[in-house]
Design goal:
two-stranded antiparallel ribbon; 220 residues; mainly alpha; 45% helix
Length: 220
């Protein structure tokens, strides 16, 4: 998980948000099926851009093997009036979406990557993620979304192995100019690639200053 900046509301929602919300609420009241307006391709395209085509929860790349789910941060079953509210929509992989389901709690809430900084609540230790001592939100996020599931840990490990190779290439570069170029390439990869905060923890241990690592992610 990493902090995400919300992009401006897409024009289709500026025009239809109130109408589609009313449509959904009336469908619930009459016990009839309502169109899944939140899946509109014009909404999804902005969410793809906003999340850099990565899951808002586990930060894994997914669109090469999956469409991804348009996710309601507050579940629509409990907040039907926010079914197409822009601030309530994001993109999630099916594994995280299925793990979260309709979970919601005011007391033990899951981190909202648009509002909360995961670095304030989570410890990224190599391919593992833990909650910071005393952070109920951190604990709930890791346990509810299953951020330590074996497949996800393995995916982080593969990513970190690639980063380790890049770090080694910098160390053995034949001159400073090549090392500097490789370093810039690594930072670009870090800013645009998956598992950003896991990679950040490794780069920090290798002496990369926070002024470089805290730059806003590149949107691709």
């Amino acid at each position: 998980m990493r902090k995400i900046a919300k992009l401006p509301k897409p024009p289709i929602l500026q025009t239809n948000e109130d109408l589609w919300t009313k449509e959904y609420l009336e469908a619930i009241k009459s016990d009839s099926k309502s169109p899944s307006r939140w899946r509109d391709k014009r909404i999804r395209s902005v969410l793809n851009l906003e999340t850099s085509e990565r899951c808002a929860y586990c930060d894994s790349e997914m669109l090469s093997v999956s469409f991804g789910d348009v996710e309601h941060i507050k579940p629509k079953s409990k907040f039907p009036d926010e079914v197409v509210k822009w601030s309530n929509l994001t993109l999630a992989c099916q594994r995280c979406n299925n793990a979260k389901l309709d979970y919601y709690s005011d007391v033990e809430s899951i981190l909202n990557p648009y509002i909360d900084d995961p670095l304030d609540h989570l410890i990224f230790a190599g391919d593992l993620i833990y909650h910071k001592p005393g952070s109920v939100m951190g604990y709930t996020t890791v346990s509810q979304l299953k951020l330590s599931r074996l497949e996800l840990v393995a995916a982080r490990r593969r990513r970190l192995d690639l980063i380790a190779t890049q770090l080694r290439n910098i160390e053995v570069a034949p001159n400073c100019e090549i090392a500097s170029t490789l370093r810039e390439m690594l930072l670009d990869d870090y800013k645009s690639g998956e598992f950003r905060n896991s990679v950040r923890s490794i780069l920090s241990m290798h002496g990369f200053p926070a002024t470089e690592l805290d730059d806003s992610p590149v949107i691709v």
